[in-house]
Write a structure and sequence with these properties.
Layout: E1 3-4, H1 16-25, H2 31-61, H3 68-97, H4 109-137, H5 142-145, H6 148-166, E2 176-179, E3 184-188, H7 191-228, H8 236-267, H9 276-301, H10 303-311
Antiparallel strand pairs: 1-3, 2-3
Helix pairs in contact: 2-3, 2-9, 3-4, 3-6, 3-9, 4-6, 4-7, 4-8, 7-8, 8-9, 9-10
InterPro entries: 7TM_GPCR_serpentine_rcpt_Srx (IPR019430), GPCR_Rhodpsn_7TM (IPR017452)
Main location: membrane
Subcellular location: Membrane
């Protein structure tokens, strides 16, 4: 089956002649190379699964995250874990055992499931950005805006949108298929595949991530203004709470940077290298590795979660902080 590679979307970056030249210069993966790439996918994916499961466990056991931010963080980790699981437990084994399954209708469902988790990931990032924006600019209304009910509804909407966006992929003409000759995913070269891949996936991702970037910049400006005006009080509890909220913002900001980097590498930079392994690293490997790096940032920013790994016990903060997150 012919596929439309991601790179063909960027008509403004490369002329058709140059693109054709580049594709002819890139050699396909040989069977033994496909096996090596599949093993890399398997090991990287499993690492992502275990680290994200650890983050989910840590967030549920650590009261510091509170109610709303913790639920959003768990949603993000579930999306990461789902992506890593599909790659490690479906894509890699199929590539090692019988690559031809990828071209079947049911084999192509791997791409559809990945799209669901992908949307769960980007919209969780968006909800995180809105959450941090609200806590900085509307601190008195934050508790009402992100109470348990509203947060639960918001997280549920993320996954409903993800399911709806992935619905067209049920049509074989809209398939998002894993191609072993390039060891990456691509849409089928049909009208439906082009429309879905361009507008419902690529442009949608750009809009969401662009919105996250704008919100994060505005939030960062708010934090700087807050510090200059001395809004952070010297009262122990209020000061600690505000520092924690700012720390959560920078955690989310770092995760967003990782996400943007992955998008730039996958959609843009990977169009240029002529080495198949470099392209594989910028596309498939980076997609999986991002899930691990995203979870690692959560661990790096929260000593309570790190303490679970070090001591095998949970560390809880003052229960009174629950009402603020």
């Amino acid at each position: 089956m012919e596929v439309l590679m991601w790179s063909t979307y960027f008509d403004g970056l490369l002329t058709s002649e140059k693109k054709q030249f580049i594709f002819e210069m890139v050699l396909p993966f040989e069977p033994n190379e496909q096996s090596i790439a599949a093993l890399i996918i398997l090991l990287t994916g499993l690492t992502g699964v275990f680290i994200n499961l650890f983050v989910i466990l840590g967030v549920t056991k650590t009261q510091t995250f509170g109610s709303s931010f913790g639920k959003i963080c768990i949603s993000q980790s579930i999306a990461n874990c789902g992506n890593a699981f599909v790659f490690s437990c479906l894509v890699a084994p199929i590539s090692l055992i019988d690559p031809s399954v990828h071209s079947t209708y049911w084999g192509a469902r791997c791409g559809q499931v990945l799209i669901i988790f992908w949307n769960g990931s980007i919209f969780s990032h968006l909800l995180t950005a809105v959450n941090r924006f609200s806590v900085i600019y509307f601190p008195t209304r934050y508790v009402r805006l992100f109470n348990k009910r509203n947060t639960t509804i918001s997280v549920a909407m993320i996954w409903v949108i993800g399911l709806c966006q992935a619905a067209p992929y049920l049509d074989y003409n809209c398939t998002f298929e894993f191609e072993t000759f390039s060891m990456t995913f691509a849409f089928v070269k049909t009208t439906c595949g082009t429309v879905v891949g361009t507008y419902l996936d690529f442009y949608l991702s750009l809009v969401v991530i662009g919105t996250v970037g704008v919100i994060d910049i505005i939030t960062l400006i708010g934090i700087r203004l807050m510090n200059k005006r001395g809004v952070v009080t010297d009262e122990v509890e209020k000061g600690r709470r505000k520092r924690r909220e700012v720390k959560f913002f920078f955690q989310a900001f770092a995760q967003a940077i990782v996400f943007v980097t992955e998008l730039v590498l996958y959609f843009y930079v990977s169009s240029f290298p002529e080495n198949k392994w470099v392209r594989f690293g910028m596309t498939t490997f980076m997609w999986i590795f991002m899930q691990t790096l995203d979870a690692s940032i959560v661990i790096a920013f929260n000593k309570e979660i790190r303490s679970i790994a070090c001591r095998g016990t949970t560390v809880s903060a003052l229960s009174s902080t629950n009402q603020y997150s």
